[in-house]
Amino acid sequence: NAGVMQNPRHLVRRRGQEARLRCSPVKGHSHVYWYRQLPEEGLKFMVYLQKENIIDESGMPKERFSAEFPKEGPSILRIQQVVRGDSAAYFCASSPESDTEAFFGQGTRLTVV
Amino acid sequence: GDSVTQMEGPVTLSEEAFLTINCTYTATGYPSLFWYVQYPGEGLQLLLKATKADDKGSNKGFEATYRKETTSFHLEKGSVQVSDSAVYFCALSENSGYSTLTFGKGTMLLVSP
Predict the structure, then answer these.
(1) Which of A40, A43, A97, A104 has the most B C-beta neighbours within 10 Å, making it the best mutation to test the interface with B?
(2) B85 CB-near residues (< 8 Å, 6+ apart)
(3) Cα distance between residue B43 and residue A6, in whole Å
(4) Which candidate from A35, A98, A107 shows the least CB-CB separation from B97?
(5) In terms of CB atoms within 10 Å, which end of chain A has fewer, N or C?
(6) Which residues of A97-106 are buried (b: 16+ CB within 10 A; e: fewer)?
(7) How many percent of chain B have pLDDT more than 90?
(8) Phi, psi at residue A84, to the nearest 5°?
(9) A45 at the B interface (CB within 8 A)?
(10) How far apart, in Å, do the first and last CA atoms of chain B sit?
(11) CB distance B105–A106 less than 8 Å?
(12) First to last CA, chain A
């Protein structure tokens, strides 16, 4: 199965620590999207990347959050100095082109204690 | 801004019952509309879509019609199965692409034998 792989599936961090969430897109896909699902909420768009470039980060919080999609390796969503409000499920999706179906991963559930 | 409103769950049905999950939207332009499904422990999968008014999307016995006059995209299935138990998300995209989707909160469907 060569679908979108996210790891870890579950991540627990103490307040103030850093969280790194990884997303390996479907082989051959160069477009990656990150979404966040807060408790009792729908998925909210965060950022759209295309190999080494950030295309749209309009949904990213201005501070503590960053994302990258290097030429080699997975896409990384990085959250610095986590707070309890960052506890959520983070989903990654990938697509071969910008206007084609995006395939979602299983998500990473981040819990901040 | 864009928004999607779904009926709250869980929706509990017996096998072979008729299913309707309501979805209404608010958008500035002429969005494309989608239904995604998330089975337990898996990522979101595209179930069906419609890109313009009066289009009907259908897949696996599910269908939904894009109603511009009522800004709705209700999901229906004539006879549900236990295997349909999942969380269903209604979503829209302002452009023809899938990249920046706006999701509803999701509706859990539980089907009992």
Answers:
(1) A43
(2) B40, B109, B110, B111
(3) 10
(4) A98
(5) N
(6) ebeeebbbbb
(7) 75
(8) -60, -30
(9) yes
(10) 41
(11) no
(12) 34
Distances (CA, A) of B18 to A47, B67, B86, B99: 38, 20, 16, 32
For residue range A3-45, list pLDDT tens digits in order.
899 999 999 999 999 999 999 999 999 999 999 998 878 889 9
Q: Which among B94, B85, B108, B90 has a CA at the least distance from the CA of B5?
A: B90
* Among A3, A95, A105, beta carbon nearest to B98: A95
Contact A25, B90 (CB under 8 A): no
Separation of alpha carbons B103 and B87, rounded Å? 12
> Do A23 and A42 meet the contact criterion of CB atoms below 8 Å apart?
no
The string of pLDDT tens digits covering residues A2-13 is 689 999 999 999
Q: What is the pLDDT of residues B27-53, one digit of tens each?
A: 988 899 999 999 987 888 999 999 999
**How far does A113 lie from chain B, in Å, by closest CA?**
23
CA distance A102 to chain B (A): 6
- Asked if B25 and B5 touch (Cβ cutoff 8 Å), the reply is yes
Given a contact cutoff of 8 angstroms between Cβ atoms, the answer to whether B80 and B25 are in contact is no
Residue A40: partners with Cβ closer than 8 Å, 6 or more residues away: B105
